[in-house]
Design goal:
The complex is a heterodimer of chains A (282) and B (555). Chain A has helices at 2-21, 35-49, 171-177, 184-197, 239-247, 269-281; strands spanning 30-32, 50-54, 57-60, 67-73, 76-78, 80-84, 89-95, 100-105, 109-113, 117-124, 129-135, 147-153, 223-228, 231-236, 253-254. By secondary structure, chain A is of the alpha+beta class. Chain A has 2 domains: 25-162, Immunoglobulin-like (Sandwich), CATH 2.60.40.420; 181-281, Orthogonal Bundle (Cytochrome Bc1 Complex, Chain D, domain 2), CATH 1.10.760.10. Chain B folds into 3 domains: 1-169; 192-334, no CATH class; 340-449 and 458-511, no CATH class. A two-stranded antiparallel ribbon of chain B has the order 1-2. Classes of the chains: A alpha+beta (282), B mainly alpha (555). At the A-B interface, helix 1, strand 8, strand 9, strand 10 and strand 11 of A face helix 2, helix 6, helix 9, helix 10 and helix 16 of B.
Chain lengths: 282, 555
């Protein structure tokens, strides 16, 4: 009995000592937030820092010792992160909808993610490699598809090892520097951000495959068969048509996609212009 | 109305006997629901078979959890509480009519919740973390069940008061009843937490309450979810003492210590919900460390006391019966042919070595990082609730069939094998799950190949072996449970009547004789086994901390 009691007390002291000397301790810092506030913050953060996209999910390469936003939603982790070995990053983690579970594999670190609570965890990756972020709290029927990515590198050349090519400079920063209108290329880059951020890629692919909705590859300037008021007709894909299709998706429905009507996405005129610029480049 | 039992000499209140039977029957039905779902789930997670679709997988996880962890266990416990407060104390049931009301409420709860789940209106898991929302009737079903259970607990206290008034027992209450009383007190605390969270959630599902804070929900829900496991532990330990008494005439070598250990459960389990929040935002580290350790380890201490006291009571009694040679003759000459006895010994081992060690390690703030929400967590509680509680309940049933249902046990040979089969099955299942979890495999996850996701992840190749082992264990445990259910159903409904002591297949031992001389420690064998246990614990402890130290730094 005495042995057992000593053991129990040792366990208690052990946990406290690990806080002092150990390198893995859950943080005590949490901020109150709301789902709308946090998703706005994350969206703005991604807009500022996005350098490309990976399977429809924006990529961010944060500077060491900066704040990093990682958002969970049904059913994805956004953004994909490129980190450097042995550097610290202040992760802000929260959910856009329901409770999720942050599980970094294969290093196997697991934390709970709530809507309305911004959990601040300072991570310092100690090994390079490709890590996956899986969700380990049940979050609905698509739970098993919720998987994100964190890549830890030592130097820039390592990026190729993980298949990252043509990463761009963060567009937001370039845009912020000058007050003159954006160039067409910058607009297109912003458009790509909108594409990934708003989830257009769920239906519209950019590789020429058209399953649920027309692919955007080579779309601009093409003649498209559409149905207007039940009658078939042909239109040319131009600025006007794309704008109408985003703002009022059901007014002209492309032949072949009658059963998968597009929802109204609520994009601003500026964002629409950016998307158009992006489509032109495909 | 009493009958006098011709085997034990107890006065048995016939009304109470009927209530015990009814609750026990529904316990068995719930267990059947739970294991049928369980085997389908095992074969879904085993990727080469991948039996169910995603919808039905999550639906049956919810169904399995509710039926196994709530309905089976609580129905059985209510039967146990009635048994401990009337039959053992030679007392009548205080208000049988209310007993039937409680029973009806619980059955109604079971039927409503199960139907709603199977209709696909409550795919929310047992934990139903908000803002996931189920159909209001799902919450209502659980509330009805809980109200019924609370009423039954109140009736238990009523019975105790009658026994006290009638001086039905001597100076002190029997240890078994004392332990059950602990369980009942914890049950009141637990059910209060349950009401605190399920009633607002029910109103929220109806649209009457606007918002349920998810962190608060989780905190209070686990006040129900984890503390209720302490009811199981207290009830299970009470049964361990009872079987030691029935099978070899053993009594605790220090009854006062055993009793105070039960009190520790009541005092230090209230914040058990804390170790479900170890890796959560919202609460500070100081809060986590304090509430999981200072409080929890005293409950762990209590479990260690019991886990020592029960085998030592066997050992002490066996030695007094003359099996005194060496360190372990008491064990080799133990009544292994008595399935209740073997169930209890196996339950003690499984509970301690699998459930207990992992429970303490996973419940420490930092090590929780490497297992939180992985399949190691269900692996841990398969060790506690399934090998511990369920096997104990299965074991004591072998006494209840002749004593309460007055039937001989059909297929007694099968009954002797069943506990071993069940133990091996769950041990394989549980250990595989723990290893899989340590390799990062998540719990409650339909497809570990992440089909349809933007990326994929391949776990350590070792997982394939442990998935296969888990499937094997699950299958064995499933068969063992079906054998048990068949034995119970056939015995109770078609078995031969028990007409007296000559029909008892399980021995009821007289009290072990007093020791002739007293030299040295009473139970050296148990002490040796305890040392083995501590060594295993320490090994696992350092292994886990080493794994943790290999992860990224975080704070």
């Amino acid at each position: 009995m005495v042995i057992a009691l000593v053991l129990c007390i040792t366990l208690f002291i052990w946990m406290i000592m690990w806080h002092v000397y150990g390198k893995q301790n859950p943080s005590s810092t949490t901020y109150r937030t709301s789902t709308t506030e946090f998703s706005k913050l994350t969206e703005a953060y991604i807009m500022q820092n996005m350098v490309g996209s990976d399977n429809g999910i924006p990529i961010v390469r944060p500077e060491p010792n900066t704040n990093v936003f990682l958002m969970a939603e049904m059913w994805r982790w956004s953004p994909v992160l490129i980190l450097e070995k042995d550097q610290s990053y202040k992760f802000h983690i929260s959910s856009k909808d329901i409770v999720h579970g942050l599980s970094i594999q294969p290093v196997n670190m697991n934390f709970q993610v709530y809507p309305g609570y911004d959990y601040l965890l300072e991570f310092k990756p100690t090994e390079t490699g490709e890590y996956k972020v899986i969700c380990n709290e049940f979050c609905g029927i698509g739970h098993h598809t919720m998987i994100g990515k964190i890549v830890v590198i030592e130097k820039d050349e390592d990026l190729k090892l993980y298949g990252f090519k043509d990463l761009k400079k963060p567009a937001g920063k370039a845009a912020a520097k000058k007050n003159e209108p954006l160039t067409e290329a910058e607009m297109a880059l912003m458009g790509e951000q909108v594409y990934t951020l708003k989830g257009c890629g769920a239906c519209h692919k950019t590789d020429g495959t058209s399953l649920i909705a027309p692919s955007w590859k080579g779309l601009y300037g093409k003649d498209e068969h559409v149905i207007v008021d039940g009658k078939k007709t042909t239109v040319k894909v131009d600025d006007e048509y794309i704008k109408e299709s985003i703002q009022n998706p059901t007014s002209k429905i492309t032949v072949g996609y009658e059963n998968t009507p597009m929802p109204v996405m609520g994009l601003s005129d500026e964002e629409i212009a950016q998307v158009i610029a992006y489509i032109k480049t495909l | 109305m009493f009958r006098t039992c011709d085997i034990t000499g107890f006065k048995v209140d016939l009304q109470s006997e009927k209530l015990i039977r009814a609750n026990a029957v529904f316990a068995v039905i719930s267990l059947l629901f739970a294991v049928v779902a369980a085997i389908l789930l095992v074969f879904t997670r085993y990727q080469p078979v991948h039996l169910l679709g995603a919808e039905w997988y999550y639906r049956l996880v919810t169904f399995h959890g509710l039926n196994a962890l709530i309905f089976w266990i609580i129905f059985f416990e209510i039967a146990g509480l009635y048994f401990g407060s009337t039959v053992i104390l030679n007392t009548k049931f205080c208000a049988p009519k209310w007993g039937w009301v409680a029973f009806a409420l619980m059955v109604a709860g079971l039927v409503i919740s199960n139907i709603i789940i199977l209709m696909g209106k409550a795919d929310v898991m047992l934990t139903s973390y908000t803002p996931l929302k189920a159909h209001p009737l799902y919450y209502l079903g659980i509330i009805l069940f809980a109200v019924g259970a609370l009423l039954a607990v109140i009736l238990f206290f009523g019975n105790l008061m009658i026994a006290r008034r009638d001086k039905a027992y001597g100076e002190t209450m029997p240890l078994v009843t004392y332990g059950l009383m602990t369980a009942a007190i914890i049950a009141v605390i637990t059910l209060a937490s349950g009401a605190l969270i399920y009633i607002p959630t029910f109103l929220w599902s109806l649209g009457l309450v606007e918002n349920i804070d998810p962190a608060m929900y989780k905190l209070i829900w686990w006040g129900l979810g984890h503390s209720s496991q302490q009811i199981n532990v207290a009830a299970m330990v009470s049964i361990w003492y009872m079987v030691s008494f029935l099978a070899v005439g053993g009594t605790s070598i220090n009854e006062r210590v055993s009793r105070s250990a039960f009190v520790l459960y009541i005092l230090f389990i209230c914040l058990a919900s804390a170790h479900h929040l170890l890796t959560d935002p919202g609460v500070s580290s100081a809060w986590k460390v304090w509430n999981t350790s200072y409080a929890m380890y005293l409950a762990v201490l209590a479990s260690m006391i019991h886990a020592f006291a029960v085998p030592s009571s066997f050992e002490s009694a066996q030695r007094r019966w003359g099996y005194n040679k060496g360190l372990f003759q008491w064990l080799s000459k133990a009544p292994w042919s008595n399935p209740a006895f073997s169930s209890i010994i196996l339950a003690v081992i499984g509970f301690g070595f699998i459930g207990g060690t992992t429970g303490v390690i996973f419940g420490m703030e930092q090590t929780n990082i490497i297992v939180h929400n992985t399949i190691a967590i269900p692996g841990h509680f398969k060790g506690t609730v399934v090998i511990g509680t369920t096997l104990t309940f299965m074991g004591i049933t072998y006494y209840l069939i002749p004593l309460i249902f007055r039937r001989k046990i059909a297929g007694f040979k099968w009954a002797q094998w069943q506990p071993w089969l069940f133990f091996i099955g769950i041990a394989l299942l549980s250990i595989s799950m723990i290893v899989l979890g340590q390799l990062g495999v998540p719990r409650r996850h339909w497809d570990s190949s992440f089909s349809g996701g933007p990326f994929t992840h391949n776990f350590n190749p070792a997982v394939d072996f442990f998935w296969a082992l888990m499937m094997l264990g699950g299958t064995i445990a499933f068969l063992a449970t079906i054998i048990w259910i068949l034995i119970v159903v056939i015995s109770v409904f078609f078995g031969q009547k028990v007409n007296g002591p000559q029909d008892m297949q399980l021995k009821i031992s007289p009290l072990a004789p007093q020791a002739k001389e007293h030299k040295g420690f009473e139970a050296p064998g148990t002490l040796a086994l305890t040392m083995v246990f501590l060594l295993v614990f320490i090994a696992l402890f350092f292994l886990n901390w080493k794994w943790l130290a290999a992860t990224w730094n975080v704070n």
